[in-house]
Amino acid sequence: MSDEVQIKGEQGELVVVANRLPVHRTDSGWETSPGGLVSALMPILQRRRGVWVGWAGTATSELAAFTHDGLYNVPVPLSEEEVRDYYEGFSNSTLWPLYHDACQQPQFHRHWWRPYVAVNERFAEIAAREAAPGANVLVQDYHLQLVPGMLRQARPDLRIGFFLHIPFPPVELFAQLPWRQRILEGLLGADVVGFQSRNGAQNFIRLVNRYTQYRGVGSSIDVAGRPVQVREFPISIDYTNIDRLAADPATIQRAAEIRAELGENRTVMLGVDRLDYTKGIDQRLRALHEILRAGRHTVRDLVLVQVSVPSREKVDEYIEIRERIETLVGHINGEFGDVGKMPVHYLRRSLPLEELVAYYVAADVMLVTPLRDGMNLVAKEYCASRRDDTGVLVLSEFTGSANELERAVLVNPHDIDGMAATIERAIAMPRAEQVRRMRSLRQRVRRRTVYDWADDFTAVLAAAGTGGPAGGAVAAKTTGEKR
Ligand code: F6P
């Protein structure tokens, strides 16, 4: 805990605006949520009179601001209808599938768009109130794409950064969005717009050129004389923390227990995902089904532990994917299992980080097979946990991580036979090849951590000019397109 605790009512020099607060409520009060983003931003926020503006995770009316762990938290209240329409609806049933290659049909509803605008306005108003003159504001993710424009209009003195944690889609897909121009103009309120990959940044510039009056050249867009920097900032993990946990004797002991429980002579494969249709969990299970059906492997030499963390459980597509996955697990275990030995161990819960790292240490093959993923930090955590340089990472080519983790074994999760063959190759990979690949993967992950991500983003933002009163208040310029 920092000794420079933010005093209630004092404005912040650095304000993070995110859908969720970095804390969640437990029986004993607020607790800091796990995750790289929170740990990366926490030291800078604690140093620089930081404020975090976000939703507390349940429908509430007003909630008082509070200080936790040296950070001033300002909750944004959402009603039950807003949770349904802004969060489950527009954010997670329109934008989420659309931005993930439309791997589920995105739903376009005007009665979701209006609450999205209203909730973005509320976040922007609170951020405008909480930011000190000339403060830096970091707006996070797809829930809040209108906030930069709204904030610039209210507070042209601020330096505003926006970072998208998920993929940004190509022109052909984004163009479907009835509110495309409003979203693009909302994002253009920022001084720096950051994406996970170069593709995302390029897609954004192309879309701006096509659907707004502004022009982008190279990595800069001219918004009425105000330059907007557009760049990729691939996010990562707290490598040292994962490496330290993997070296802990308690973790090593737990990993040995996991292996003993699963059977010493079996190849242990692992999947760890939020229970989300973008993660390719069902495709992975179907590939396993093919492997067992072909008969070259049996339940005696192979096991998959699939950890699925419940997520967005009220959204129809998430209810459906859970049913699909659980049916598949039942089929595979019914067809290929034996009393006391099952090919799939399915854990539908979140695990504490220490336990998760023990699973990473125990696993011979890690399966990360999303249909589309902005980055995928599980892939990086697995590498950071492999201190003896063994283990094989099977990684979907449609993840942001695949841009960096070139020595992983890449797969196309849509190609079930191809994925089955690749997994068999991973199972059979000689130790020397595992070591060659894993050594290079670990180096890549060690070289660029989430702290570098935070430093890069804040440095580019600090170097960016502020718009000033004449600096193109984008939100005011919206034209013809549907509201
Ligand atoms: O990857 C995008 C993201 O919004 C993360 O920021 C978050 O941790 C995860 O999805 C879970 O989302 P939710 O806040 O909907 O539970």
Low-confidence stretches: 1-5, 467-483
- What is the gyration radius calculated from CA atoms? 23 Å
Question: CATH class of the largest domain, please?
Answer: Alpha Beta
Strand fraction equals: 15-25%
Report the biggest beta sheet as strand number plus sense, adding barrel if it closes: 10 strands, mixed
End-to-end separation in angstroms reads 44 Å
- Name the CATH superfamily classification of the largest domain: Glycogen Phosphorylase B
Describe this structure in words.
The protein has 483 residues and is α/β, with parallel strands linked by helices. It has 17 helices and 18 strands. The protein has helices at 36-47, 80-99, 110-130, 147-154, 171-174, 180-187, 198-211, 239-247, 249-262, 281-294, 316-336, 353-362, 377-385, 401-404, 416-427, 431-447, 450-463; strands spanning 12-20, 23-26, 29-32, 50-55, 66-68, 71-75, 131-140, 159-163, 192-195, 215-217, 220-223, 226-232, 267-274, 302-309, 344-347, 365-368, 392-396, 409-411. The strands form three sheets. It has a ten-stranded mixed beta sheet with strand order 5-6-4-1-7-8-9-12-11-10, with helices on both faces. A six-stranded parallel beta sheet has the order 15-14-13-16-17-18, with helices on both faces. Helix 10 (281-294) links the parallel strand 13 and strand 14. Helix 2 crosses helix 3. The longest helix has 21 residues, at 110-130. Residues 1-5 and 467-483 have low confidence and may be disordered. It binds 6-O-phosphono-beta-D-fructofuranose.
Helix and strand arrangement:
Layout: E1 12-20, E2 23-26, E3 29-32, H1 36-47, E4 50-55, E5 66-68, E6 71-75, H2 80-99, H3 110-130, E7 131-140, H4 147-154, E8 159-163, H5 171-174, H6 180-187, E9 192-195, H7 198-211, E10 215-217, E11 220-223, E12 226-232, H8 239-247, H9 249-262, E13 267-274, H10 281-294, E14 302-309, H11 316-336, E15 344-347, H12 353-362, E16 365-368, H13 377-385, E17 392-396, H14 401-404, E18 409-411, H15 416-427, H16 431-447, H17 450-463
The chain binds 6-O-phosphono-beta-D-fructofuranose (F6P).
